[in-house]
Amino acid sequence: MSSGSPTAYLVWSILACLFFCFLIFHLWKYDRFKCLKWSESGRQPGAFKRFMSYTYIATLTLLVIFSVAFTFIKFKEGYIITPEGTSKSATYDILTEFIPESSVYPKPTELYTTSHQKWILPLLFLFSAAWACEIVTHWEELTFWLFLLHQGPKTRLWFDSWEFRVWLLGTVVAGLGMPLTTLISRRQLDTCQAWIFLVGSSASTATTLLFLYVLAGFPAFIRRVKADGAEPNIVLRLVMFYQLNFGRVLFRFLFTIPLFILAVDGVQGSHPINQDPFWSDFLIMLGGVGCFVSSFITLLIFFPRSLTQELGYTTALLPVIHSLQTADDGIN
Predict the structure, then answer these.
(1) Is 153 helix (H, G, I), strand (E, B) or coil?
(2) From CA 36, how far away is CA 53, in angstroms rounded?
């Protein structure tokens, strides 16, 4: 599966680098990187939250390395031109010439130079590890929200719940499954990426579909928290999480479904989509936009900044009687 032009992967590289810069800026403004320390200090204590933060940041770091390196190799290798059914290698500047009755495709991986081809498999392992961390992060978040939604009158402990055991099982499956996919399909590098896309997008799409259940039950959860007398800041934050998750689910589908389409086309006999210059590039770039926009929203959910606290203000509720009196004075 050599689909995708160098320009399509350049879009991934630009999005990855820009978002990684914003990640550093956001975490510095959030708490001066204290949230990354394995300790009980900072605004987000607890080993579980630390692990979720580490897998999230590991995903983005590995994606930056993969996208930049893969883009560099793609541009160096260029394309092949197939005039009248024959094939030959071509460098990028040959594309500026007009060749009648010919087709131009990104060069297949097996035609790469030895110096570049030896890096493809390590980069694919890196990509599969990044996707494994992505699945673990969102599976972790999904099961924890399920744990909160299923809380009844009797308080349950997270580490004793069935949701935690489901998360643990999913973490092991994702952590082993994605690298094993690369290991098993490593003999054919052109289809190896297609199998990574297929397994990764299937798992991520399934996780996103399950998140629809969380969104459906979230309004009732907010009403229950509000009825239990929670502080306004907590209720407002839950409302913000609910709205952000709507957008994130949309962009996660925008990330997984295009790559799933490319994967299905790449592992079967003919490859009409992957061999189409427009659709292969369009789906890869669409997946990149969905990936990094959803990751941006995840950053706002995992590390929510509070400008009120950063500026030193505190919020307080006005007493009802005082509010009514103020309103009456305004009318009079």
Answers:
(1) coil
(2) 7
Of the candidates 237, 253, 319, the one whose C-alpha atom is nearest the C-alpha of residue 291 is 253
Locate all alpha helices (DSSP H) within 32-154, ordered by sequence. 47-77, 114-149
**Alpha carbon 220 to chain centroid, angstroms:** 27
Buried b (16+ CB within 10 A) or exposed e, 57-89: bbbbbbbbebbbbbbbbbeebbbbbbeeeeeee
189-204 residue pLDDT tens = 888 999 999 999 999 9
* CA dihedral (219, 225, 228, 232) positive or negative: negative
Q: For 229, which DSSP code? A: T
Each residue's pLDDT tens digit, 220-258 = 989 988 888 888 888 888 899 999 999 999 999 999 999
User: Of the ranges 99-103, 116-120, 196-200, 207-211, which one carries the lowest mean pLDDT score?
Assistant: 99-103
